Amino acid sequence: MPKSSPCASPWPSLWLASLVVLVVQSVLSSSYSSPSSYQRPAAGGKRPGFMGRTLVLLDVNTRSPIRVLNDNFLSLQLDPSIIKDGWLDFLSSKRLVTLARGLAPAFLRFGGKRTDFLQFNNQKNLAKFRGPGPDYYLKNYEDDIVRSDIALDKQKGCKVAHHPDIMLELQREKAATTQLVLLKEQLSNIYSNITITARSLDKLYNFADCTGLHLILGLNALHRNPDNSWNTSSTLSLLKYGAGKKYNISWELGNEPNAYRSMVGRSVNSTQLAEDYAKLRTLLQSVRYYHRAHLFGPNAGRPRKNAILLLDGFMKNAGSVVDAVTWQHYYMDGRVNKAEDFLKTRLLDTLTEQITKVAKVVNTHTPGKKVWLGGLGPAWTGGINNLSDTYAASFLWMNALGVAAVQGIDVVLRHSFFDYGYTHLVDQQFNPLPDYWFSLVFKRLVGPRVLAVRVAGLQRKPQPGRVIRDKLRIYAHCTSFDNHNYVRGSITIYIINLHRSRKKIKLAGTLRNKTVHQYLLQPHGKDGLRARHVELNGEKLLIQDNETFPELKPKILRAGRTIAMPPMTIGFYVIKNINAYACRR
């Protein structure tokens, strides 16, 4: 289990007393014999208490939080490729709007690999700029989009559309064709520009505004003058349009600037990038509506040598310009072909190492500056079909949220909410994938105050606690204040069991003899880790229609009952009526 930061206050003596009592009870119980009294079982029989030979004692420091995160800790990302493949036109779908609302409040970052090829064109209707589609339906398809836009314009406030099934099917065909073009560009490192029109920005902002998400818009950092300085013409036009519409937007410049040389054969060093950010800050201040707008960056890639060098130089020269430092982390490439690979502890632990590297650089130049994971996903290059879109990937996602929270990452932006590929929360049928359901439960139950966890493992033969710490990961937060089913002072614990066997957790200390509400999420059906559906306490989770979520019903565990975690599962546990001091204020 990842180590928590030291608590601000000492552990109460109640913990020690409870631990001693539980140890004695466990040793004397028939299901947990001591090593000295252990007897070999008869031939063909099982050892006494075989399934319960490991008991984990768990307590949480309820006096004070070790971290207080942003209220939008779990946030979302959309890739600019949705303009090119056409999915931007369908963000007004009632079902997509409903699914995004379920994860609010959150930030919505519009950025990714193609951020640096966006060009703003201040025109309303540019049908000729639309992406290619099969000739036999292109004309009618484009006419349908235009008619849909006209209908949306007549609506006041939040604009929501109903798209016929045939229209969605044609869009899926178009997106599949366009994605082959985008993949070819990525493999050849020859990228075409993407035009973001005024109409496109209207649709994007309408989606964010309707769903309670705050838009962060990525700007093209590769639009350069002959002297390699940043060309601000397109950005200034965009800012003026957004200000005129009173669009409340935050900003960032570029995406993974450390990778520009490999992408386009030209580089932007840290000094130049710092100057570009200073120029953007000045530009924002010159537009009255955005003079106090937030600016985030530099959105560096995984903290390897080049990225760390760029981040270090940027923080030295422009650390005070940005409101939060952003960087990205992706766990694996497309060569993975086993679901079990997503459960490897070495893979899960890479994030802790990367956070340590970034934090060291940031604290050297701007101590206390907020750090964001500006892009996080299970895999890059679109992910892996039937792997990164299944239950198996949820172990990476939930562990990443736990590690990031304990390490003080203020916001985690998940790549991506919706698009073509296999790393998203919602698929092209507008159906939520396992990671969506985990995100929804996380949003409903987990608040921004992080608590320190203390774990003690009891085993038949005393061994180093490596296995328990590595494969049983436990995180604790104050329960979300937005959840009115629980009073302030409640605690939410989420547990990740990577073991192939059941594990028992006994609540001790301040948690002892408290009623617990269990939200156990398991794969649905016979596909196991490759399942694309999730069940909560045995009930399959489904969206009933385009605007109704299923009721998230807990299973009530009586006070003092041991928590039994099935193998390779993830569960959330709310401790009610604990009146935790850290969670009351």
From TrEMBL:
InterPro entries: GH (IPR017853), Glyco_hydro_79 (IPR005199)
GO biological process: extracellular matrix organization
Domain of life: Eukaryota
Gene Ontology molecular function, alphabetical: hydrolase activity, acting on glycosyl bonds
Pfam families named in the record: Glyco_hydro_79n (PF03662)
Keywords on record: Signal
GO (cellular component) term, any one: membrane
Signal peptide: 1-29
Cross-referenced SUPFAM superfamilies: (Trans)glycosidases
Family per record: Belongs to the glycosyl hydrolase 79 family.
Name of the protein: Heparanase 2
Organism: Kryptolebias marmoratus
